[in-house]
Specification:
It is elongated and about 85 Å long. The chain has 16 helices and 11 strands. The chain has 2 domains: 298 residues, DD-peptidase/beta-lactamase superfamily (Beta-lactamase, 3-Layer(aba) Sandwich); 80 residues, Transcription Regulator spoIIAA, CATH 3.30.750. The longest helix has 16 residues. The strands form 3 sheets. Strands 2-1-7-6-5 form a 5-stranded antiparallel sheet. It has a 4-stranded mixed sheet with strand order 8-9-10-11, with helices on one face. The chain has a two-stranded antiparallel sheet with strand order 3-4. The protein starts with a helix and ends with a helix. It is of the alpha+beta class. Helix 3 packs across helix 4, helix 8 crosses helix 9 and helix 14 packs parallel to helix 15. Bound molecules: glutamine. Glutamine binds next to loops.
């Protein structure tokens, strides 16, 4: 049988194909020369499967889509404290290239606007790195997210550098506030090289899937950045990734996302999928027109909104019954599915409310597929308290979902 997903993607592209609204970005001359008809969409699953339609192998520059990834690298390299001291996490509600900083501190409001991204670039790698080595670190990092070596589009880079007055103005302002400590021209040059990295829609989907897969590239298996870093990056994408339309996006589409002026757009749905689209014509906010339409379709057709309340999961307590009789009787709690806080609370309640009178209590975890940290701790505490009350507690855990300690 042929997979249904490529056919769905073909249909989704066909639905938006005729929309020629929007404009190519023209403040970088080389970008204005792009082919506006290009159109692509790719889904990358967290186990590394790619589904694509349209011009999935056309190369274009990553532009602002590099920002969340460089932010991830800076957090990983310099640590949260150092990065947060210099760049905030508040949505600005302003255009990406707005010349504005936080009033009291002079910090850029967030890492997705240019002021924040220029600062973030300066924080990647160790403080001792030369400007060239820092750029190399950024390109290596972007490549690790994509799972293949990426390169810089030199013509695009030169074209943007010649017209970088606004980014230079921002960098000088950052330098005057002491947020940047290096030569502003050198930092802007590095930032523009970062923006000029060439990618395909496939690459972008894989990069997004690496975020969706808690920082592990689904194909290479590389842990590119830490899990805590990924949570931070996805949160900032969700609140600031679409600049002054972040609120619209959060309500309509509801997928942590980032756009770039070359027409790329990524979305990362935690634990599920990385999505990328490419279509160069932009709306007034600098976001791809057809990319937004595609994401709106994907979100509503497939229920991808992160705030979508999941269908009530099957009850975690599959059975609560007595096995055997007399002195050998055991109370058996059969658990099932994925257990997080709410599921663990149901288990605690079931145990407390049914107050087992049998000495032996068995928790059967054979059908439990996963249990998160909080739920595991709660279950351990239940076991501990039952033992304090004189119960003999056994845990049937063939897949070791509880970890070694409790099984012993
Ligand atoms: N390199 C571009 C700039 O700094 C990136 C902007 C974007 O993609 N929104 O202006």
């Amino acid at each position: 049988m042929k997979s249904i997903i490529p056919d769905y993607l073909d249909e989704a592209l066909a639905r938006v194909a005729s929309d020629a609204s929007g404009q190519l970005a023209d403040y970088i001359p080389e970008l204005a020369a792009a082919d506006p008809t290009r159109l692509a969409a790719v889904f990358a699953t967290t186990d590394g499967r790619l589904y694509g339609a349209g011009d999935v192998d056309t190369e274009f520059t990553i532009q602002s889509i590099s920002k969340p990834f460089a932010y991830a690298m800076a957090l990983d390299d310099a640590g949260f404290e150092a990065v947060l001291a210099k760049v905030g996490v508040e949505p600005s509600g302003e255009a990406f290239n707005q010349i504005s900083l936080e009033r009291d501190t002079g910090r850029p409001l967030n890492p997705m606007i240019n002021a924040g991204a220029i600062t973030v670039h300066s924080l990647v790698g160790s403080m001792q790195l030369t400007a060239a080595d820092r750029v190399a670190r950024v390109i290596d990092g972007l490549s690790a997210f994509a799972g293949r070596p990426l390169g810089v589009d030199e013509a695009m880079c030169a074209s943007e550098m010649e017209n970088a007055h606004r980014n230079l103005a921002i960098a000088h302002m950052l330098r005057s506030h002491g947020v940047l400590t290096e030569d502003p021209t050198v930092v802007v040059d590095g930032y523009i090289r970062q923006c000029s990295v060439r990618v395909t829609t496939r690459d972008l989907a894989m990069m997004a899937a690496t975020l969706a897969n808690h920082g592990v590239n689904p194909v290479t298996g590389d842990q590119v950045v830490g899990e805590r870093v990924v949570r931070q990056v996805l949160s900032v994408m969700a609140t600031c990734g679409m600049y002054d339309t972040a609120g619209d996006w959060a309500t309509q589409v509801g997928i942590p996302a980032k756009s770039g002026v070359a027409g790329g757009l990524i979305g990362a749905l935690p634990g599920q999928v990385g999505i990328a689209t490419f279509s160069p014509r932009l709306d007034a906010h600098g976001n791809s027109v057809r990319g937004i339409s595609l994401f709106e379709q994907f979100s509503s057709d497939m229920g991808l909104h992160v705030m979508e309340v999941p269908a009530t999961t099957r009850t975690v307590v599959r059975a609560n019954r007595t096995r055997g009789s007399g002195a050998g009787a055991a109370r058996v709690f059969e658990l099932q599915g994925g257990i997080r806080f709410a599921g663990a609370e149901r288990i605690v309640r079931e145990v407390v409310d049914s107050a087992p009178s049998e000495t032996r209590v068995v928790f059967d975890l054979t059908l439990v597929s996963s249990i998160d940290d909080v739920a595991r701790r709660m279950l351990r505490e239940v076991v501990y308290r039952l033992r304090l009350d004189g119960h003999h507690v056994e845990i049937a855990d063939p897949d070791s979902v509880m970890g070694a300690r409790v099984r012993a």
